[in-house]
Design brief:
There is one protein chain. By secondary structure, the chain is of the alpha/beta class. The chain has 2 domains: 327 residues, Peroxisomal Thiolase, Chain A, domain 1 (3-Layer(aba) Sandwich); 47 residues. A hairpin with a 3-residue loop joins strand 12 and strand 13. The longest helix has 30 residues. The termini are far apart. The chain binds oxa(dethia)-CoA. The site of oxa(dethia)-CoA has 22 residues, from helix 3, helix 7 and helix 9.
């Protein structure tokens, strides 16, 4: 989508031109960007509205399983896993309290903290996940409650490993349409719970974790400038969890045959991924009016280093130093892989204001997605103070107390008979109506 410089002035976050404002009502740290990004166009009140990633965070479980650990579980070798995938170790949710939502809450809090935006400011939470807590309710709603994001809508997005990039595209759409000022996009996974630990073709590949970004409305040009979304459902059977949905409801038989575990035709997915990663990157760059040479950093879905080499490096001829890879530490964390990689790229100083980034992913569905991003905000974190930290902890505790209180009220309320709950007035009113 091309932006029109002469369009009518658009609303800005809290009416502040050129910046968004933080949850405390003061101008955010991102306001100081002209100094840090001299080449960026100066924003004014006639600038078009843009969707900027202004906060980022991730969280992975503590427990690490190395390739050598896997040698004790299935017939595999560290050498095979490293040379065929690039993976060396992965984090696994060992504690029952570590779920997709709890990892997602930790990542989302970190994203809000890095932007210095209060949870109450968030308008929408999109949780992309391939391992949701339940069929319903959505993992996003549980994250919303855990954050105390009391003004946010929430929904899960099912596009498998492409889900996070799909979510960014949705966030951009909501913001550009003027429907939201702040959208949290979370990728959260506990794939270890749906992996067959006796299947060496899949169990060596996946890992658990969560990553999140806060996307904000701004009138600084740039941010998420283009997206490409794709799907080919004829390949639905190539990567699937066959049982547990409405097509094959859970039963003793589905459980005993392992129908609730991930099944994959790895070679077919590999071929598909190698093709679409290159194509989607080309397409999104075309939409953003950029060439391959303009790209400063590609953050691809972290599934297999050979897919990245065969697509981004060989087909697009993007040099290795412009491609971020961290799958050796985490394995394939599905929807979480790109936001975790983004956070680590920032930590390692690989992203600077003014950079052109591409996020590109593929996954079950089959699906693929890419986003072009003109990074337009400083990458420093706000200064951590005792007071800020105390305020935050108080907010989280208040959110937990509010949630418990609501549950308790519902429980008490449900003890009363129907008539006494609504009172005679309502009943009569209904009858009258
Ligand atoms: O987010 C999307 C998720 N999915 C993916 O990204 C998967 C994409 N596909 C892949 O990454 C690769 O296809 C795999 C890593 C899954 C497999 O690599 P490959 O080079 O395609 O291996 P292969 O399936 O062709 O298997 C080659 C050999 C086979 O043995 P034989 O038949 O040649 O004797 C396999 O049985 O390697 C064997 N093998 C293993 N050996 C040791 C398969 N898995 C393992 C293993 N350890 N874990």
């Amino acid at each position: 989508m091309s932006e029109q410089p002469d369009q009518q002035p658009t609303s800005t976050v809290n009416g502040t031109s050129g910046v968004y404002r933080n949850g405390n009502g003061s101008n955010s740290r991102h306001q100081s960007q002209p100094e840090q990004q001299p080449s960026a166009p100066q924003a004014n009140k006639f600038s078009p509205r843009s969707a900027q990633i202004v906060g980022w965070g991730y969280h992975v479980p503590e427990k690490v399983i190395t390739n050598f650990d896997l040698e004790q579980i299935v017939d595999t070798q560290d050498e095979w896993i490293r040379t065929r995938t690039g993976i060396e170790e992965r984090h696994v949710a060992a504690a029952p309290s570590e779920t997709s939502a709890s990892l997602g809450i930790r990542a989302a809090r970190a994203a809000l903290e890095s932007a210095d935006v209060a949870p109450s400011k968030v308008d929408l939470i999109i949780c992309a996940t391939s391992s949701p807590e339940h069929i319903f309710p959505s993992t996003a709603s549980i994250i919303q409650d855990g954050l105390g994001a009391s003004n946010a809508g929430a929904f899960d997005l099912s596009a498998a490993c492409s889900g996070f990039v799909y979510g960014l595209s949705m966030a951009r759409g909501h913001i550009l349409a003027g429907d939201a000022e702040y959208v949290l996009v979370v990728g959260a996974e506990t794939l270890s719970r749906i992996v067959d630990w006796t299947d060496r073709g899949t169990c060596v590949l996946f890992g658990d974790g969560a990553g999140a970004v806060l996307v904000a409305a701004s009138d600084v040009p740039g941010g998420i400038t283009a997206s490409v979304l794709g799907s080919d459902g004829s390949g639905a059977d190539l990567l699937t969890v066959p049982a547990g949905g409405s097509a094959m409801p859970a039963s003793l038989e589905t459980v005993s045959s392992g129908g609730h575990y991930i099944k994959m035709d790895g070679t077919a997915v590999f071929r598909f991924a190698t093709r679409v990663m290159a194509e989607a990157t080309r397409q999104v760059l075309g939409k953003a009016g950029l060439s391959v040479d303009d790209v400063d950093l590609v953050i691809p879905h972290q599934a297999n280093v050979r897919i990245i080499q065969n697509s981004v490096l060989k087909q697009l001829k993007i040099p290795e130093e412009k491609v971020f890879v961290n799958l050796q530490k985490y394995g394939n964390t599905s929807t979480a892989s790109i936001p975790i990689a983004l956070c680590e790229a920032i930590e390692e100083g690989r992203i600077h204001p003014g950079d052109n980034l591409v996020f590109v992913g593929f996954g079950a569905g089959l699906t693929w997605a890419a986003c072009a991003i003109k990074w337009s905000v400083p990458v420093s974190k706000p200064e951590e103070t005792w007071w800020r930290n105390t305020q935050r902890q108080a907010t989280y505790q208040a959110a937990a107390a509010r949630s418990m209180w609501k549950r308790a009220i519902r429980r008490v309320y449900s003890q009363f008979p129907e008539e006494s709950r609504w009172g005679g007035g309502r009943k009569e009113g209904n009858e009258a109506g």
